[in-house]
Amino acid sequence: MALSNVLEPAVSGFNFENSTRNIVLENGSEEGKIKAPKPMKTGTTIAGVVYKDGVVLGADTRATSEEVVADKMCAKIHYIAPNIYCCGAGTAADTEKTTDMLSSNLTIFSMNSGRNPRVVMAVNILQDMLFRYRGMIGAHLILGGVDCTGSHLYTVGPYGSMDKVPYLAMGSGKLPALGILEDRFKGNMDLEEAKALVSDAIHAGIMSDLGSGNNIDLCVITKEGVDYIRPHRESLYNYKRQAKYKYKPGTTPVLTKTVNQLELVHETVQMMETAGSS
Amino acid sequence: MNTRGLRSQLKDSVPVTGLCPQAGPYGVQDSLRRGFSSVKNELLPSHPLELSEKNFQLNQDKMNFNTLRNIQGLHAPLKLQMEYRAARQIQRLPFLPSSNLALDTLRGTDDSIGFQDILNDPVLSEIMGDPHIMTEYKLGVL
């Protein structure tokens, strides 16, 4: 449909047309202020640890939408490159889309140059992207990977801040998880120790934080490859339905039945001139 | 990286294209085409990122050219800007979406994906401008 008030072609990217309307709606009516719908947050505990041969990342699997659990088996460890994985906390859609775009950009890079991407590249791309939007994209990410320079673990905040440390926890359950990590972390652990440490850190987050829960996922990245263990530990409270809730046919009684026969009285066909536009 | 050359940006001003958006050909409010105006709408952007996003590519180019000038001398940005100007002129008719392939290759954005490639792709836009009016506006005859 060609509109006569469009003088320039549409601009791609974010569209701010409705922001004035939204502000008016939120501040408008005096009796009940109309609230914007809240985005689904992951309310998470994510953690990562560098061990002798690589990196272990861990995450819980609960996604909350305010007070309701929206997803019991949410996948929070996202694929970035064959040797780089990323855990995401914050707004669920933001972490998904950002990690997807990061993964696409790194794939194009490796096709162009014929090399495997490095973890610093992923961190730099993320920092540029998140700083450009001044924290409006709510993505708190933990990136871990093994490349030609070694094993690395980074965290990127929603405003573009970055930190490189041997052990990390993020999300609403990060304080209990950090407690466990601070207590038992040591350099050059072996695989089973590292997996147990991350798993216990996430478990502490699940027990002490309402926004984290359900199962624990682990992802072990080494030079040889990736082991994505989903789920590593299942929650004890798996709510299975106690009974079938389907109604049998015939449950609703039929009280009366009337049948009206419709007769075809008259049939006409009329040709119409539709108002066609270019 | 995007933060290099930021200091050389301090003297340049960011073009604030948000002011007087409703001006028509005679410099006054173009009610027929843009609707009624409100002073608040024209002065303040309603979203904190609106202006920064509108001018993002412009500011990036400015920053990169400034850095290039500081490193290699005045000739480098001049030559590049000449090529940009030539590439920017390769467009389809005003109401059809152009791929801007030459411009993208020059800028180096042909091998990266950002939100401007995923969201609101003009190729998939559901509304279209009237061809006659858009061409006349582009030629200045309107």
TrEMBL record, chain A:
Keyword Cytoplasm: yes
Domain of life: Eukaryota
InterPro entries registered for this protein in UniProt: Ntn_hydrolases_N, Pept_T1A_subB, Proteasome_bsu_C, Proteasome_bsu_CS, Proteasome_sua/b, Proteasome_suB-type
Active site: T44
Pfam family, one: Proteasome
Domain Proteasome beta subunit C-terminal: 240-269
Keywords: Cytoplasm, Hydrolase, Nucleus, Protease, Proteasome, Threonine protease
Reactions this protein catalyses: Cleavage of peptide bonds with very broad specificity
Subcellular location: Cytoplasm; Nucleus
GO biological process, one term: proteolysis involved in protein catabolic process
GO molecular function terms attached to this record: threonine-type endopeptidase activity
One GO cellular component, as annotated: proteasome core complex
Biological role: The proteasome is a multicatalytic proteinase complex which is characterized by its ability to cleave peptides with Arg, Phe, Tyr, Leu, and Glu adjacent to the leaving group at neutral or slightly basic pH. The proteasome has an ATP-dependent proteolytic activity. This subunit is involved in antigen processing to generate class I binding peptides. Component of the proteasome, a multicatalytic proteinase complex which is characterized by its ability to cleave peptides with Arg, Phe, Tyr, Leu, and Glu adjacent to the leaving group at neutral or slightly basic pH. The proteasome has an ATP-dependent proteolytic activity.
Family classification: Belongs to the peptidase T1B family.
PANTHER family reported in the protein's UniProt record: METALLOPROTEASE TLDD (PTHR32194), PROTEASOME SUBUNIT BETA (PTHR32194:SF9)
Subunit structure: Component of the proteasome complex.
Protein name (record): Proteasome subunit beta
UniProtKB/TrEMBL annotation, chain B:
UniProt signal peptide: none
GO biological process terms held by the UniProt record: proteasome assembly
InterPro entries: Ump1
Superkingdom as given in the UniProt entry: Eukaryota
GO cellular component, one term: cytoplasm
Any single Pfam family the record assigns to this protein: UMP1
Entry keywords, A to Z: Chaperone
PANTHER family (UniProt xref): PROTEASOME MATURATION PROTEIN (PTHR12828:SF3), PROTEASOME MATURATION PROTEIN UMP1 (PTHR12828)
Stated family: Belongs to the POMP/UMP1 family.
Entry protein name: Proteasome maturation protein-like
